[in-house]
Amino acid sequence: xxxxxxxxxxxxxxxxxxxxxxxxxxxxxxxxxxxxxxxxxxxxxxxxxxxxxxxxxxxxxxxxxxxxxxxxxxxxxxxxxxxxxxxxxxxxxxxxxxxxxxxxxxxxxxxxxxxxxxxxxxxxxxxxxxxxxxxxxxxxxxxxxxxxxxxxxxxxxxxxxxxxxxxxxxxxxxxxxxxxxxxxxxxxxxxxxxxxxxxxxxxxxxxxxxxxxxxxxxxxxxxxxxxxxxxxxxxxxxxxxxxxxxxxxxxxxxxxxxxxxxxxxxxxxxxxxxxxxxxxxxxxxxxxxxxxxxxxxxxxxxxxxxxxxxxxxxxxxxxxxxxxxxxxxxxxxxxxxxxxxxxxxxxxxxxxxxxxxxxxxxxxxxxxxxxxxxxxxxxxxxxxxxxxx
Length: 389
Description:
alpha/beta; Rossmann fold; 2 domains; seven-stranded mixed sheet; 10 helices; 24% helix
């Protein structure tokens, strides 16, 4: 791997950062911010060619002078989509997050999600400002041994499930609060955590919007302090001081704004008279998987650049709990291309790389000639399509 450490930092410039040592990467991130640079963090498990191309593209971009943080959106593929935000857009939420977590100086916050995720970068900035410490897993995934010394965890539901199982199995711990985002928190998992003395606080947000709604006790999501919500044609719109500026470069993503300061990423929702928020999924068919939101169009566009793939449909394959697996149905023009998965890994971040592959001689279509996505998904789930080994 190329030298992961940046040289002299130019204030206001993007600094791509990647290091196989997560502790070293944290130090580099903080040093870049201290020097006035804008850290842009990669995942050490990404394909090297993907990262080199992404870092080169990012380094040529010029953010506005007030930009302090940049994160890859969940839709990042071969053409990076980078979300830029000011320091204030995160810092203005710190008091409410501190209160929700019951965070105190001297606490230690465990971050199981990759440092490339906006979830982890936010917590790194928050802990730094709050006087709390940061703990990182020793391996790629969190394990019972990682709980030693942690008092707070900021994680996704799958990570919380791993933690709860470890504690139930006898792992010693001092956790008292789990702040859980990235996907819906199953009530049974919340109950298991709280039976072990770990208070679970879940929230809904997006990398572009930051915090939107919070559920402190299992009674349902309600607007996060400082956030206004409204629903237009089933689409949830948000107005708050926590919004990102938008995307750098010429990329276009899910974020849309209006002249009144309202923004949406296309999530559908209902808000009842009491202010309780019920999420109904994405209007664009996005796939929620772990801490990522995967836009099928982005993955399909990347797959279609692989010679031999004539058509591709990407969809959510059900997984245990509320998570999903990214799956792809492809039609080949002739024989399947050699090293298909390796070629895809060079184009897609690991969260977007299909884990299940299916193939058909002809894709089912609608009357208008478009892929019949619902039928394709149903056929794949039901086992009516050939699996690629």
